[in-house]
Amino acid sequence: MNGRALLPVLLPIAVLAAWTALSSSGLAPAYLLPGPEAVFEAGVRYVFGAPGQGPYAGRFLTDLMASLGRVFAGFGLAALFGIPLGLCSGRVVTVNRLFSSTIGGLRAVPGICWLPLALIWFGIGFRTTVFLVALAAFFPIYQNALTGARSVAPIYYQAGAMLGVSRLRGVFAILLPLAMPNLLTGLRLGMGISWAYLVLGELTGVPDGLGAVIMDARMLGQTDMILVGILLIALVGRLCDRLLVGLLRVCSKSARRLG
Amino acid sequence: MNAGGQAATPLLELVGLGHRFGRSEDDPPVLDNLSLRVDHGEIVCLIGRSGSGKSTVLGIVAGFLTPERGRCLLAGAPVTGSGPDRCVVFQEDALFPWLTVRENIGFGLRGTAWPRAVISHEVDRFLALVGLEAYADYLPRALSGGMKQRVALARVLVRAPRILLMDEPFGALDPHTREEMQELLVRLAGQHGQTVLFVTHDVAEAVSLADRVLMLDGQSGRIGRELAMDLARPRNRTDREFHRSCALLQGWLRP
Predict the structure, then answer these.
(1) Chain B residues with CB-CB distance to A173 below 8 A
(2) Confidence (pTM)
(3) Which of A126, A242, B193, B207 has its CA 20 to 30 A from that of A52?
(4) Class of the B12-85+161-253 domain?
């Protein structure tokens, strides 16, 4: 392995070393910062342990499924509305005028502000979380779809029209492929935000989910489990991002070749 | 090349076209009572100084623009909107960037009822005609300017348009490539009896391609002069006749 290949792992190794030094030297007490091996053990117990071996043992799969369900439902709703609305707004001036100020105004509201209202409307649990995730993920998806549609040069529509492509088929044969790099960016941003708002929604006291575990562990003073939760959310979030990119590359030539 | 002589209906006929770009009546018209005709199998070059409205004429024939006044008739029928019977090769790169050379050429056939095997065969045939068999699976971004225009040409010829519209398609190419493309166009048009309306401001290009040259006069907004090119083909650029024709056209364009 040469120096260049080593470069990206340099920083994580340094952080790990500092963490070990900090916790083993006693500078940071275990209830504030448990050592790496304690966190690792808690993680293994959480993911692979049998129920009953500890407070969180073996709960991972249940929590993961609960969180994934909320993220996919919210993200799916955001994409379902964000992509068509964004593409329409980017293509049709009238549609853009109709929506732009309203959507711009809504976007200025920090997503967290919706939490109290969502709790009143939907109560604690699945629907509140999905609502928050969908609302937050909508804006980057919408905005990037709009930018993508707007950036398609008219000459491509002219080329399509003269080759016999109808307006409707042009949406799928010309608009979508050319807007795909922007769509992909928007979807990835939306997916990232989905995980952020998932944790927010789950902090409100739902019984299961990766975010719920973090909040629950805080109340029990289990700092190691908080760290396990954070690391697992980072890992699963990253996997979801790769999955999204992979899926679009499989489905779209344009995402494969232009993305 | 003139198939029907004084045939009853020309393939393309523009009658009394008027068009302006501004919205108000004070804006000067780009085209004013312009008329022209192109017969079956003819290569007609439309020359003119920049801003004289050459591309506007082409845009109207292609159906991208609706003229304010006048009629545009293809084989006697009025043109409405764009369609594969009137295909354009643009000056700039308008290939679909996410499709390979083969897919770009086949793009216009995807929506037809043709069987897959026939489409594939046609695409192969036109790949060979423009000499790009070896580049079939390349993306446009990997091609040179001349290769891109070969693909653009094949992409429209495969749809067998009744008239091929070319909007300074070789303007951005280096001189050598430009001449190569001109020869290719003349050869393909000859083989297919293809009617071509070719817009250019390069007089040598007009002389090497055209059966007839029309000069669009920017001042009046209509066809100012016309020259039938009866030079034998293939045309030799070092020929004295060739130079005399160029000089003549150059004189027309001088202010």
Answers:
(1) 107, 110
(2) 0.89
(3) A126
(4) alpha beta
